Amino acid sequence: MTTTVAQHTPAPSTDIASTAIDSTDTDSTDADSTNADSSDTQSSDTASTPAAKTVPERQNLLGMSREQMEAFFLSIGEKKFRAAQLMKWIHQEGSDDFAAMTNLSKPLREKLARVAEIRGPGVVYEGTSSDGTRKWVLEVEDGSYVETVLIPAENGKRRTLCVSSQVGCSLDCSFCSTGKQGFQRNLTAAEIIGQVWVAQRSVGPRRDTANRPVTNVVMMGMGEPLLNFDNVVPAMKLMLDDNGYGLSKRRVTLSTSGVVPMIDKLGDEMDVSLAISLHAATDELRNELVPINRKYNIRALLDACHRYLSKCPDNRQITIEYTLIKDVNDQQEHAEQLAALLKELPCKINLIPFNPFPNSGYETPSRNQTMRFQQWLYDLGYTATVRMTRGEDIDAACGQLVGRVKDRTKRSARYIQSVQLDAD
Ligand code: SAH
Ligand code: SF4
Question: How far apart are CA 48 and CA 40, in angstroms?
């Protein structure tokens, strides 16, 4: 398996990994530090207080939604409107330095520096492909790596960031290299929005809405976003917030392999664009490629798509992702089955030629076969786009991002062992 990590600069926060993971959940804000006047005294008295361990850590403001940020300011005895100011500094100016926030009074800046911080993931690798695709390998709190990729299109007018939601993935789709690495943990909201923050900081701050460094976000990196709902939703809300990244809901896409109850839950919370990783038009084949289909079959999945669309106020379509795998799902009968299946669903189809990885057991169809498949769908009334692989020279194919996963499920160890056995 290829992992493109050129160098490794240890993140300064590695030592606080275990406490940081527990504390990034900002719920502690309200409970622990509501005594606004005493919070300053508490932090400065740390050394002389025997019960120093009870002093709250500096809170990381990066992943806080607007509501959480407002609660934080109230908790330190400040006005709610400060939240909007801070969010602009963090997400639009890309700042992590309170001292530079010149529209805040000096005492407030000093207070913030004592009780809070803005801590993004550490960048261990940054590369640009010959086709303009940029990739960042980021070290998150426990020393795992995740990747995020910025893909330019339409002469640079569109810049789509592919964002990860988990370290690894538990769903084990048979053609996915992330799945082969096993699952370690959910990313926090700060680590998810931190990917957008890092990319935007590298490209340049957002000075005006017409010239955004990141114009679109797709939750198509490592992990199944709907299995990390509680962190993914606040992070996506920051993507949409006018004081955050200000993206329209049509430009933020969540891709799921089909966690049906969570599609319903998502529809109750927000109406971002939805992409479904279908890949097969019969349950028999989909059970093999996307094992979660054994729990939520194709009918249940399509019904959930209809329910989701019915909650969107505008004329929305679902994006159907279909990874084309040679001799597995790329024949004319598969195109016919797919067209028949999607007859009732307002949707567009995105064909993704399989991105190979060692010992996957699958092959990529020829370019001609891909075009034939596209033409069959066209003849059946569907315009399907083909997503060409981008950033190949920096190993940045979307949906194929590989980080460094400390694999609790040991699946990657078993996988590597099987690969070695095959090679013998
Ligand atoms: N877990 C989510 C999002 C991440 S994967 C999901 O499954 O939808 C993003 C897309 O890349 C999915 O459609 C996924 O099925 C696809 N994908 C994964 N591995 C791939 C590979 N080796 N080649 C082509 N597409 C792949
Ligand atoms: Fe997980 Fe998506 Fe890969 Fe399936 S395709 S293993 S759900 S990341």
Answer: 14
Q: Rounded to an integer, what distance in angstroms lies between the CA atom of residue 264 and that of residue 311?
A: 10
Residues 264, 267, 273: CA angle, nearest 5 degrees: 120
Specify the ligand 2 atom closest to the Cα of 177. Answer: 3
2 located within any domain: no
Q: Give the structural domain span for 102.
A: 63-117
* Residue 398 annotated in active site: yes
Q: Is residue 17 part of a domain?
A: no
Query: Which pLDDT tens digit goes with each residue over 401-411?
Result: 545 444 444 44
Ligand 2, atom nearest to 223 Cα: 8
pLDDT for position 361 = 94
Same domain membership, residue 178 and residue 88: no
Q: Which ligand is nearest to the CA of 291?
A: 2
Please work out whether the CB of residue 399 comes within 6 Å of at least one atom of ligand 1: yes
Q: Spell out which residues line ligand 2, taking CB within 6 angstroms.
A: 169, 171-173, 176, 178-179, 223-224, 257, 277
Same domain, 318 and 393: yes
| Domain annotation covers residue 53 | no
State if residue 176 touches ligand 1 by the CB under 6 angstroms criterion. Answer: yes
Q: Which residue's CA is the nearest one to ligand 1's atom 11? A: 399
Does the model's pTM come out above 0.70? yes
Cα(176)–Cα(178) distance, rounded to whole angstroms? Answer: 5
**What is the C-alpha separation between 101 and 113, in angstroms, rounded?**
11
User: Catalytic annotation on 147?
Assistant: yes
Tell me the pLDDT tens digit for each residue of 241-292: 999 999 999 999 999 999 999 999 999 999 999 999 999 999 999 999 999 9
